[in-house]
Amino acid sequence: MTDRTSQNEEQGEQRQPRPEPRDAAFWAKRVDKLEVSAVPDGASNVNVHGRREVGALQGFGQLWQKTYRVRLTGVETTPEEAVRVWKERFPELQPPNSRFYPSMAGVAPGEVLFISASVGGMPVHTGVRVIYADDESFTVMTPEGHPESGWNTFSAYADEDGTTVAQIQSLARANDPIYEIGFRVVGATEQERLWTHVLKSLSAHFGVNEPVSLEKTCVDPKVQWSQIRNLWHNAGARSMIYTMTAPLRWRRDRARRG
Amino acid sequence: MPQAQVTMDVRRVNDNASVIDVKGELTAFAEGVLMDAYNQASDGRVRAIVLNFEGLEYMNSSGIGLLVTLLIRVNREKQRLLTYGLSEHYRSIFQITRLDDAIGIHDTEDEAIEAAKA
């Protein structure tokens, strides 16, 4: 047993503002909802503006941690250089069925990246926000409606022998029951192909052709029925409706123009 | 990989709660230290784990991931996870990542220990 009462009181009386920590510049500012002022050419803002961000605790499905790695063997590059290239070329490292549209500021804390993807053959317009970015890593967090609820961290580090290793680590669960079924049937495999493709593309940029390893752990096997209302924001369903109603919007806009 | 730049001392403050004093950097490299501290802290009939973040000097997104993993373990053991000593900056990060939805945040150790009784 420890009595810390008097110590806490003394600390409370003498409490001074603490100096800003080293990580302060790397984190995004808190926002209640995502606000989008400009949408890059080709991107769709249908499921981004006004959405709240959701993390690994808010989704519906099982919580998985997946870690993908590739060793940049035989290349003189530092983790900082690998991540710099990753940030600059993030959209072009994606496969054709997953398009990313960064803002003019690129991959930087607080910036939104728009996504137009195909998940299980279903079009999904959504996005992610960069919540953390330093010289050796950056992390994106998903909004409501995104297939996943959680984070993806893209990083690089030097292995014991000095080889730079590029890594993607996702900590996420499916956002709602529809996505959960989709992930269990085919989506998880598609997602693994996606991130494997990204690491293969990054290593190819450095002239490396090494296998991508994957470690996956089910951190929480339970589904969260308390989150079933996430269905309302399902970006796949909303994207489908948005696509199907495009002719109506075209006719409406034409009528307005007279 | 670099070594963890963190120490975590465990104190049993009463029959129900243990405090983990986190000093240093909470990054991916702190995983072993954090889980060892949790195993030590949850020994016996402890119902609440209290993280003291007064000595937290640096945290990146991997550190947040560790806290999520710890929270899942704590919930599985039907325990509660509470914190105190977070600066305004780190409180804001708990809000950004929405950890504050599930982890109790308190100003002082006394408040956290009192909340652990509830």
Provide a descriptive summary of the structure in words:
The complex is a heterodimer of chains A (258) and B (118). By secondary structure, chain A is of the alpha+beta class. Chain A contains five helices and nine strands, in the order H-E-E-H-E-E-E-E-E-E-H-E-H-H. Chain A has helices spanning 5-13, 79-88, 177-205, 235-244, 246-257; strands at 53-54, 63-71, 98-101, 112-119, 122-134, 137-143, 148-158, 164-174, 213-220. The termini of chain A are far apart. Chain B has 118 residues and is an alpha/beta fold. Chain B has a single domain (6-113), classed as 2-Layer Sandwich (Transcription Regulator spoIIAA), CATH 3.30.750. Chain B contains four helices and five strands, in the order ββαβαβαβα. In chain B, strands 1-2-3-4-5 form a five-stranded mixed β-sheet, sandwiched between helices. The A-B interface holds A 1-2, 4-5, 8, 12, 18, 20-24, 26-30, 53-58, 63, 65, 131-132, 134, 137, 139, 141, 151, 153, 155, 157, 159-160, 169, 171, 219-220 and B 1-2, 11-14, 28, 56-62, 64-65, 68-69, 71-72, 87, 89-90, 92-93, 95-99, 101-102, 108-110.
Task: Describe, in short, the structure shown.
The complex is a heterodimer of chains A (258) and B (118). With 258 residues, chain A is an alpha+beta fold.
